[in-house]
Amino acid sequence: MNYRPIEGGVTAPIGFIAGAAWAGIKNPDKKSEKPDVAVLYSESACTSAACFTRNKFCAAPVLLGREILKKGKARAIVINSGNANAATGEQGIQDARAVERTAEKLLGLGEDQVFVCSTGVIGKRLPVERVIRGLECAICRMSPEKGTDAAWAIMTTDTVKKEAAYELTLSGGVVRVGAMAKGSGMIHPNMATMLAYVTTDAAVEQAELQKMLSRAVDISFNMTTVDGDTSTNDSIFLLANGASGVAVKTEADKAAFAALVEHICLDMTKRIASDGEGATHLIEVQAHGLPTEHDARLVAKSIAGSSLFKAAVFGKDANWGRIMAAAGYSGADVDPTNADCYLASAAGKIQVMKGGFGLDFDEALAKKILSEHDITVIVRFYQGQGGATAWGCDLTYDYVKINGDYRT
Amino acid sequence: MNYRPIEGGVTAPIGFIAGAAWAGIKNPDKKSEKPDVAVLYSESACTSAACFTRNKFCAAPVLLGREILKKGKARAIVINSGNANAATGEQGIQDARAVERTAEKLLGLGEDQVFVCSTGVIGKRLPVERVIRGLECAICRMSPEKGTDAAWAIMTTDTVKKEAAYELTLSGGVVRVGAMAKGSGMIHPNMATMLAYVTTDAAVEQAELQKMLSRAVDISFNMTTVDGDTSTNDSIFLLANGASGVAVKTEADKAAFAALVEHICLDMTKRIASDGEGATHLIEVQAHGLPTEHDARLVAKSIAGSSLFKAAVFGKDANWGRIMAAAGYSGADVDPTNADCYLASAAGKIQVMKGGFGLDFDEALAKKILSEHDITVIVRFYQGQGGATAWGCDLTYDYVKINGDYRT
To answer: Residue B161: phi, psi to the nearest 5?
Structure first.
């Protein structure tokens, strides 16, 4: 590993600045400390890559984002929380366009240079005027120090800001990669988990950048589930402005840079799962020895998504039968007659199943293992080399509470 | 409709008797009123049809049941709750066989004439001796009146017995169809929901019987979800002993009989969803106007299974955005630009989306509609004739409570 963590988030790379402001998008009458409009801006031209939700009811900003990505000229991103601008029809597209055009004017940019993102309630018209008022204010406040305010502005039911930054040494010198993300509910990405932003001051060719992002998303965001619900607004962006003067060019550089992109996506993924709505545990599920990676992915995601297993983890109950039931209905090619299962955490590791048969195990130790915040489930088959890891969280009273009355 | 409800359950048809007893399968030290072993017996030869779970980690009784179904000679079913005999390897098969063989001896039957079923905790060895002791006692108590005791014995986290019976007039005379079922959690059938039993005193040819059952299961049990978890033990059986002396022979008879089998399966389905673990609402989801029936099934099941929507129903929150998000990620071919959505119950009906765009609606009326126990969601597309209905329940604190500590 030739990278190391540094302070900050999306504005840690050279030439990226951000700002945030309160616009009262969800509730204009209740002035809040928490900002709800963020802007992220590269002071010089960038290459950009993005992945969007595969939900067919995708939000207006996603439809618009796909267009803007094609043009390849984006340099800034405006994000609002409090309203998803989804299921808003043609009006929603016009509203997203209005925000984009205004941002371009205020930032002195040309057409198709600003992505817009929205997250929040589905099916209500975006209050464009309020968003724009917030945007003006956020732009005024832009600075390299305001990355963390942007990470705050994009939160909805999140309880913690999710940001990280790293320094990477390449053949030509040092580059930085920063990231922020939001996501807590409606997390079962078929692409990406709600909203995530990665910036870098490395210079990376666009096709290469997209390839790296897509691969990283595949093993990180796409392997995370909070509630099995794929959002209408999932989007992840990776902007590379080359401001470090260092290009990702040799094969070794590419490998190193791609590894860091994967690492930072995994980092955001785990923070999202860990901050899943109402969650008290981060659950990592490792599936080994399946015929193919595809089978392993199905098994790992199926276990991470099982409501029954998630409720058992909340109850600190080593109910491994639910783990294997979830493997069995995953759709993967699994051989139930030869499978092992382990539970692990910082408190220890126990085997609960061997060769498809339940073992007598130390219930007290199992309870101790499941009392840690971070829990690992390992299922091992003996059918091939396919392996995969998925992340999720437990199902708790608070998940029900949060979602029983989120909209109103 | 040429059928009408009558008293009773699986023993309402002529020639079926049942019995139940307490065997202490889950907890031998805590003598309970609730029986945990049931036996259902036809006094004469039957034809039988069955569908089993598609979960690859299927339980020993399911593996054995598939064999016995092939032989086509079954006349009795032994069912225990408290232990699923799943993930129990070769030992589990031997244990299921031991129960089967003992039942055959006690009932004076030949080889392969008894199905065995188990439901309860996964991964613990079946306490065969206790099951057999209970079985002996249940057989002693068999009578036409004990169908309801059998329905009680098969319950686990169920809060109500699920049984029904009907009388049907065919060309040759009157026949009866009875049913019982259990199921409350781990309900997301890929075949059938935990355990269901249908009996009839009509004479029906085996291939016809299987066809009718498979079709009925497809539109009932396979369209029901409580928690997205497909059980290891799902099984449904349909036994026809012809004891009425009336055969299902004309095309009109077949249609009438198949309609009643569908009706009784739907009836059991709704009772299971309604009694979903912790449920306070029964949710029916109707999807109309999709390109194919397959698309409509995907949409209806996806909505019925959305944790977010289920939690919103618990909170009586008309959060229809989650309905459309679930339609969007269902994998079906849906056109989000032209879709309508309605919420309905005995308290009224409101449209919340028209042409893919959210409507302003009466929130007070919406809350009133969602305050009823039985709620209907209707999503209408304009892409074709495909329609389907699915059933589910809300996601509540009690679901988490029940499953946070079910095993221990």
So the answer is: -70, 145
Q: What is the Cα–Cα distance from A37 to A117, expressed in whole angstroms? A: 10
| Inter-chain touch B329–A56, beta carbons under 8 Å | yes
Last residue of one domain, picked from the residues A239, A274, A309: A274
Kindly list the residues from chain A whose CB atom is less than 8 angstroms away from the CB atom of residue B229: 306-308, 322, 325-326, 329
pLDDT tens for B188-199 read 544 334 677 888
State the nearest Cα–Cα gap between A335 and chain B, in angstroms: 8
Do residue A193 and residue A334 come from a single domain? no
Distance CA B18, CA A154 (A): 61
Q: Is B336's CB within 8 Å of A406's CB?
A: no
Tens of pLDDT, residues A88-127? 888 999 999 999 999 999 999 999 999 999 988 888 899 9
Chain B nearest C-alpha distance from A133 (Å): 25
Tell me the residue ranges of DSSP E strands in A291-360.
339-345, 348-354, 357-358
> Tell me, what CATH number does B27's domain have?
3.60.70.12
As a whole-number percent, the residues of chain B with pLDDT over 70 amount to: 94
| Separation between Cα atoms, residue B319 and residue B352, nearest integer Å | 9
Give how many domains chain B has, as a whole number.
Answer: 2
Residues B301 and B189 in one domain: no
Q: What is the ipTM score, two decimals?
A: 0.72
Check CB contact under 8 Å for B329 and A363.
Answer: no
Please state, rounded to an integer, the average pLDDT across all residues of chain A: 88
Same domain, B254 and B302: no
Average pLDDT, chain B: 88
Confidence bin at A1 (pLDDT 50/70/90): low
- Distance, in Å, from the CA atom of B274 to the CA atom of B367, rounded to the nearest integer, reads 20
Q: Residues B205, B335: one domain?
A: no
Query: Are residue A226 and residue A287 in the same domain, yes or no?
Result: no
> Percent of chain A scored above 70 by pLDDT?
94
**Which residues of chain B lie closer than 8 angstroms to A342, CB-CB?**
none
Which residues on neighbouring strands pair with residue B50, listed in sequence order? B237
Indicate whether B136 and B43 sit together in one domain. Answer: yes
Instruction: State the nearest Cα–Cα gap between B295 and chain A, in angstroms.
Output: 13
Q: What are the backbone angles phi and psi of residue B314, rounded to the nearest 5°?
A: -55, -40
CB pairs under 8 A between A and B: 222
- Residue pair B134/B23 in contact (Cβ under 8 Å)? The answer is yes
Positions of A marked catalytic: 193
pLDDT at B97 (0 to 100)? 97
Q: How confident is the model at residue A314 (pLDDT cuts 50, 70, 90)?
A: very high
Examine the pLDDT at A72 and tell me if it is beyond 60: yes
Q: For the whole model, what pTM was predicted?
A: 0.77
For chain A, the first-to-last Cα distance in angstroms comes to 47
Best residue of B26, B52, B53, B56 to probe chain A, by most A CBs closer than 10 Å: B56
Q: Where is the domain boundary, B227, B249, B274? A: B274
Q: Residues B193, B199, B224, B396: which is the catalytic one?
A: B193
On whether both B224 and B303 belong to a single domain, the answer is: no
Quick one: pLDDT at residue B58? 83
Residue A340 lies in domain: 282-404
Q: CA B119 to CA B112: how far, in whole Å?
A: 21
